[in-house]
Design a protein that fits this description.
Elements lengths: L27 E3 L9 E2 L2 H13 L1 E9 L12 E7 L2 E5 L9 H7 L4 E3 L2 H10 L7 E3 H7 L7 H9 L1 E3 L15 H12 L1 H14 L3 H13 L22 H21 L3 H4 L2 H10 L4 H5 L7 H5 L1 H13 L21 H4 L1 H21 L3 H4 L2 H10 L7 H10 L4 H16 L11
Parallel strand pairs: 1-8, 2-5, 3-6, 6-7
Antiparallel strand pairs: 3-4, 4-5
Helix pairs in contact: 1-2, 4-7, 5-7, 9-11, 9-14, 16-18, 16-20, 19-20
């Protein structure tokens, strides 16, 4: 653990009473790209030309992707937006010729990428073969700076005084051809992203948080994609209303059947069959097509065509022996709810309470949200497990490092965790009867 402390961030105690009030800049609407909306590139020849243009540019490269979440099962990129000084903006459609993206991939391997909320875009870019060697995440930078609203439009307004035209982020980007107003929206997402990066980088340096940001950006850049959840069917909405294990099995079988259809057709599962219909069928336990189609949703034309498939799923659940029915709760997965700690592990509850108090105080002092100071899951796990006696700052630092905490987080959090682990909580004196 290094000896560096947190940056000297002004607080109400040390801030000058004569500090000037800084007004928000006047917002200038940015409704279309200055150079116009670029054409959509979709052929190998166009990709080769784009790679050459990007290689001839200079400085960081702004990137964004558009996916079709809520419409498609996959998280693939249906449009890639790129902008670089000296190159201008590029809109790339990777769908028909993903294997021909080599020149663009090569041009992007090395320069710094500038993304907003990079963890949303990196997986689909990696899927296409893109390699990020250096990352700057403007949203994450905003979080470290304690900016209250870190969506792209808010940050562009705050730092650059520009108002982005928004409105199509949740659209079905798998649609072809893409409407002109959607392409305008997409191009604007990278229009001033490099300029936003410059403004955020300067503020990070001014607040002494540039090293923090470098470590955070590197962590996001190299961390693997999350492993698939176990028993994903348990995330079905309103599952808590299903009480019997037989009905839970019906939910599981219907969910699995829906998943198979969604994967095969690349359709978002909720568009195949909504969660509400799965729960309703599991509770009603219909045995015939007429019974099934009498339920909400299942009477529609699409669901009538799949009726036999849904009934087969329900029949599989009905035939399961009791020994193969799912338990009412997942059990044994993760930690118990925090509100149960006091009864199950009172020492852990005390550690967590003290640690949260320390983190809140530190968050206020350095101007960075608590959840960015230390991952909440890691905090809970350390407080639950404890540290072998004798508790030392080195042991806590080692535990934080093994849990993935970055050096700057360990510098801030190890001392306050040591206090939480070693100092008994203050006890209110008992009132006299």
């Amino acid at each position: 653990m290094t000896e560096s402390g947190p940056p000297d961030v002004p607080t109400p105690e040390n801030e000058s009473v004569d500090s000037p009030v800084v007004d928000e800049p006047e917002i200038t609407p940015l409704t279309e790209p200055v150079e116009g909306v670029p054409p959509v590139l979709s052929t190998p020849a166009e990709f080769a030309d784009a790679g050459a243009r990007l290689a001839a540019g200079e400085g960081p490269i702004a990137l964004d992707t558009e996916r079709a979440s809520g419409f498609r099962y996959s998280g693939r990129a249906y449009l890639i937006q790129i902008r670089r000084r000296g190159t201008g903006s590029l809109l790339i459609d990777p769908i028909d010729h993903p294997d021909a993206l080599g020149p663009v991939i090569e041009a992007l391997d090395g320069p710094q990428w500038v993304l907003h909320a990079a963890d949303q875009d990196l997986p689909c870019l990696r899927e296409l073969g893109f390699v990020c060697a250096d990352l700057f995440d403007t949203e994450l930078g905003g979080r470290l700076l304690g900016i209250p609203r870190v969506n792209l439009a808010a940050m562009v307004a705050h730092h650059l005084g520009l108002g982005l035209a928004k409105g199509h982020g949740a659209a079905d980007w798998s649609r072809r051809p893409l409407p002109d107003d959607w392409l305008n929206y997409a191009a604007l997402d990278v229009e001033v992203l490099v300029e936003l990066r410059d403004a955020v980088a300067a503020e990070l340096v001014a607040t002494g948080k540039d090293t923090w940001a470098e470590q955070e950006f590197d962590h996001v850049r190299i961390k693997p994609d999350p492993a698939p959840r176990v028993d994903r069917w348990r995330r079905t909405s309103s599952l808590h209303t299903v009480k019997s294990t037989r009905a839970l099995a019906a939910v599981r079988e219907l969910w699995t059947a829906r998943e198979e259809i969604a994967v095969a057709r690349d359709i978002a599962p909720g568009r195949v069959l909504p969660d509400s219909a799965i729960v309703a069928a599991a509770l009603a336990a219909p045995r015939t097509v007429d019974d099934l189609t009498a339920l909400p949703v299942f009477g529609g034309h699409r669901q009538r065509r799949q009726a036999r498939r849904w009934l087969d799923a329900l029949e599989r659940a009905r035939r399961l022996p009791d020994s193969e029915l799912p338990p009412r709760s997942a059990g044994g997965v993760g930690l118990p709810a925090v509100n149960r700690w006091a009864g199950r592990n009172p020492e852990a509850a005390q550690r967590l309470s003290a640690a949260r108090t320390g983190l809140a105080e530190t968050s206020e002092r350095v101007g960075t949200p608590v959840e960015n100071l230390l991952q909440p899951d890691l905090l809970r796990q350390i407080c639950w497990d404890g540290v072998a006696e004798p508790v030392t700052i080195e042991a806590i630092d080692d535990r934080l490092a093994k849990g993935g905490a970055r050096p700057w987080q360990r510098d801030l959090c190890a001392p306050l965790l040591l206090t939480a682990f070693t100092e008994p909580p203050e006890v209110e004196p008992a009132s006299e009867a």
